[in-house]
Design a protein that fits this description.
single chain, FAD/NAD(P)-binding domain, Gyrase A, domain 2, nine-stranded mixed beta sheet, eight-stranded mixed beta sheet, 20 helices, 25% helix, GCVT_N, TrmE/GcvT-like, FAD/NAD-bd_sf
Length: 830
């Protein structure tokens, strides 16, 4: 029987490639009192049957940097440990069968230039030269990424484990975790140890890297780990003439398939459009080590037929082995990383959606740094485990969603694409009313919310394309209605928290960079920053009483924000989520005051309610909190109404405003109008790697006031040094050029950044957006290290600016001021 230590500082549950990488990186950071517990043997769960593809380019700068570190680590790991990893740089070839796919590949190639990755656009003939086995007569083109490669998953895990052991980490196999012990803390339980079938172990921190078993480990501590397994298929063929060790990794996403060399044969797998969910975590057989599921040739047929079409040699090649191995997938195709909000000291690293081998090195380092530093050292918002509500852990919902998610790996990544499965999940009180008005719904954090409203008699459906889609005309009408009269927006999905008690003010003065010690009835726009000055939240704080504050944030960040405030609370304030208790109706536009004036006897003029104030009013048949504020750049109000009165208020607004031109409007209209005003958004312009200095929002920080706040010293230092990069507004010169966000920005012909947000602005009559730009060499890592001051105002104003729109260079006008109403006259118009 294995004799376990009585305690360890960190216990890692799971001995796959992720758990091994976390242990390795903890040890390299000096944390060697680590115990890894594996219920079977190393790599026996999902890791061993992974295909082992290591593609460097990801959809974001942060994601690309994470995977690039993986490749750097794998390239040197064998020399360090003496164990082979099977890592080999062979290049990657991605094909396009359709013009739509080729647009995506051209956008991908442009992104590669922004990330300093070598990438080449190829003709079909050139693709055939790179990969002589493929059929090319039906191709439109391809891209070549010479830095892509592959690794042997089991060997890589063993190498990482040896590297960890060498530095003092203890790894125990054949030990099953049966429970997690906790004690009550201020806001939630705190981890004190684990129970196993070989005895108990005390610990300070626990990392759940248990793969498809991670939800079971999480449940032992009351932690939500939203992932579900799906069957994933590939075959390995007999040897094929012409196949060699350096054959590139082939991806044919229009055929849902990937191919790599495997011992002289070919490994052929893919991501079929409709996947097969496997059992829920609690129903996984035990033991389940180095095991596969039954062959399913009927389900695999769509992939095999596509592969034979692309590689005709497969029609004459035997199949050596059929692999059907379950892998875990998350609701949004991004993995889960970071501290669980439900339990102090409990971290999650799971749900890697078939990119675990490519991500393992970077994700392992990122989580290890998070554990050591107490905060992430890079932008990990997209993979933060706290991005999901508790409802995302519902097994039936997850099973429905995972069938869709797996197939999205190789679907065309249309801008604004919305998931279709598992909906609706969370509904506003006016959900049915907006549907009746023609709303096309999107979803955020489970909430259904209107994106755009179709005209009467037109099917309310988004048409996806790279060019300007038809629904943008509907959105333009909503923008014009809001700019000229009044628009009503259902913004119920806002996250809303009450922070109350004697310590409420002290807490918010510490976690908020803005001055929130204001009179009752004032609303303050403020960032919440980390110690490095980076954005952790972008919120509005309204003082609703001497010891009570209402904090309003974005729909996607509920769990994350609550966790942040609680972790950094001063004293013992009550921090309560009231998101579902209140609907929010945004009433925006130059006639918004006139509309509300018809429904209330209270005065609404500037003297009675100036901008940035909030008060309780009777409006129509409802008692609401009316806050005069705007995110669209017009006179406007956010009406916070109890959910049971929201539908009545909605009806009253449209009845009273019929002759004023009142119109329902959606989030797509908000996007266009907020970009015309240069308003920033969290997770796009405002990230943990962006400070208020780069964002141009130091006015929202109380830098002229005495007293400290979290991140103040870092912001002051960055301001003194000057920003290495800067958020700028831009407008496209060509009104026909439709930008979506993510495009590369060039200055005098050289890549200097990327578009963070873009939309068509109806008022400026062209695509408008925000971009994060700076001289070459000042990436987020460099900027975070020392703000070199390279992105001066003069540098931004000078030069010839363009945006790479899938290979077409579109001239843009760049400005440090908003393109529309830069002086904010319309916001205060009486």
């Amino acid at each position: 029987m294995t004799a376990l230590p009585s305690r360890a500082r960190v216990v890692v549950v799971g001995g796959g490639v992720i758990g091994a990488s976390i242990a390795y990186h903890l040890a390299h950071l000096g944390v060697t009192d680590v115990l890894v517990l594996e219920q079977g043997t190393l790599s026996c769960g999902t890791t061993w049957h992974a295909a082992g593809l290591v593609g460097q380019l990801r959809a974001s700068e942060a994601g690309t940097r994470l995977v690039r570190y993986s490749t750097e680590l794998y390239a040197r790991l064998e020399a360090e440990t003496g164990l082979a990893t099977g890592y080999r740089v062979c290049g990657g070839l991605t094909l396009a069968r359709t013009p739509e796919r080729m647009v995506q590949l051209r956008r991908t190639a442009a992104s590669a230039s922004a990330y300093d990755l070598e990438c080449e656009l190829l003709t079909p003939e050139q693709a055939g030269e790179r990969y002589p086995l493929i059929r090319t007569d039906d191709l439109v083109g391809a891209i070549w990424l010479p830095g892509d490669g592959r690794a042997d998953p089991a060997d890589l895990t063993q190498a990482l484990a040896k590297g960890a052991r060498t530095l003092g980490v203890r790894i125990e196999e054949r030990v099953r975790v049966t429970g997690v012990t906790t004690v009550e803390g201020r806001y939630r339980p705190r981890v004190t140890g684990v129970r196993t079938d070989h005895g108990d172990v005390e610990c300070e921190l626990l990392v759940d890297a248990a793969g498809q078993w991670a939800p079971l480990v999480g449940a032992m501590a009351g932690v939500n780990v939203p992932l579900h397994s799906a069957e994933h298929f590939y075959v390995v063929t007999d040897q094929v003439p012409g196949v060699h060790r350096d054959l590139p990794v082939l991806r044919d996403p229009d055929g849902w398939t990937y191919v790599k060399e495997e011992v002289g044969g070919l490994l052929v797998g893919g991501f079929e459009p409709e996947a097969k969910p496997w059992v829920a975590p609690e129903d996984i057989p035990r033991p389940f080590e180095f095991q596969l599921l039954d062959e399913d040739w009927e389900h695999f047929e769509i992939l095999m037929d596509s592969a034979v079409h692309r590689l005709p040699v497969l029609a004459e090649t035997g199949i050596r082995k059929f692999y059907n191995g379950p892998e875990s997938f998350t609701p949004d195709n991004q993995f889960l990383l970071g501290p669980a909000p439900e339990c102090e000291g409990f971290y999650v690293a799971a749900g890697f959606n078939s990119v675990g081998i490519a991500s393992a090195g970077g994700a392992g380092r990122a989580l290890a740094e998070w554990v050591v530093e107490g905060e992430p050292t890079m932008d990990l918002v997209a993979v933060d485990v706290r991005r999901f509500p508790a409802s995302a852990g519902n097994r039936a919902w997850l099973r429905s969603r995972v069938a869709e998610v797996l197939g999205l790996h190789y679907a065309v990544p249309w801008p604004g694409r919305e998931p279709v499965s598992g909906r609706p999940q969370r509904c506003s009180p006016v959900y049915e009313r907006t549907l009746a008005q023609g709303a096309v719904m999107g979803t955020r954090n489970g909430w259904e919310r209107p994106l755009v409203f179709a005209p009467s008699g037109v099917e309310p459906r988004l048409d996806h394309r790279w060019e300007r889609p038809a629904w943008v005309d509907w959105c333009d009408a909503e923008q014009r209605a809001t700019r000229s009269a009044v628009g009503v927006f259902d913004q119920t999905s806002f996250s809303k928290y009450l922070v109350t008690g004697p310590d409420a003010l002290a807490t918010l003065r510490w976690v908020c960079a803005g001055d929130v010690d204001v009179p009752v009835g004032r609303a303050v726009y403020t960032p919440m920053l980390d110690a490095a000055g980076g954005y952790q939240a972008d919120v509005t704080v309204t003082r609703t009483g001497p010891r009570e504050f209402l904090v309003v944030s974005s729909a996607a960040t509920t769990e994350r924000d609550l966790d942040w405030i609680r972790r950094h609370a001063v004293g013992d304030p009550a921090v309560v989520d009231v998101t579902s208790a209140y609907a929010v109706l945004g009433v925006m536009g130059p006639r918004s005051r006139e509309l509300l004036g018809r429904l209330t006897a209270a005065p609404l003029d500037d003297a009675a309610q100036p901008f940035g104030t909030s008060r309780l009013l009777d409006i129509g048949r409802a008692r609401v909190r009316a806050t005069r504020i705007t995110y669209v750049g017009e006179l406007g109000y956010e009406l916070y109404v109890p959910t049971d009165q929201a539908a009545l208020l909605y009806d009253d607004l449209f009845a009273a405003g019929a002759d004023l031109g009142v119109a329902p409007a959606g989030y797509s209209a908000i996007e266009g109008m907020r970009l015309e005003k240069g308003y920033r958004a969290f997770a796009r312009e405002l990230t943990p790697e962006t400070t208020p200095v780069e964002a141009g929002l130091t006015f929202a920080c109380a830098l002229r006031e005495p007293g400290d706040f979290l991140g103040r010293a870092a912001v002051e230092a960055r301001r003194a040094a000057g920003p290495a990069r800067r958020v700028v507004s831009f407008v496209a010169d060509d009104p026909q050029a439709h930008l979506w966000g993510g495009e590369v920005v060039l200055r005098d012909g050289a890549p200097v950044g990327q578009v963070t947000s873009a939309a068509f602005g109806a008022t400026v009559g062209a695509s408008v957006g925000l971009a994060l730009v700076g001289p070459r060499g000042t990436d987020a890592g460099a900027a975070g290290a020392a703000g070199a001051g390279g992105a001066s105002a003069d540098w931004c104003r000078a030069g010839r600016w363009q945006v790479d729109l899938a290979g077409t260079l579109v001239p843009v006008r760049v400005s440090l001021r908003p393109p529309f109403d830069p002086d904010g006259v319309r916001i205060g118009r009486t």
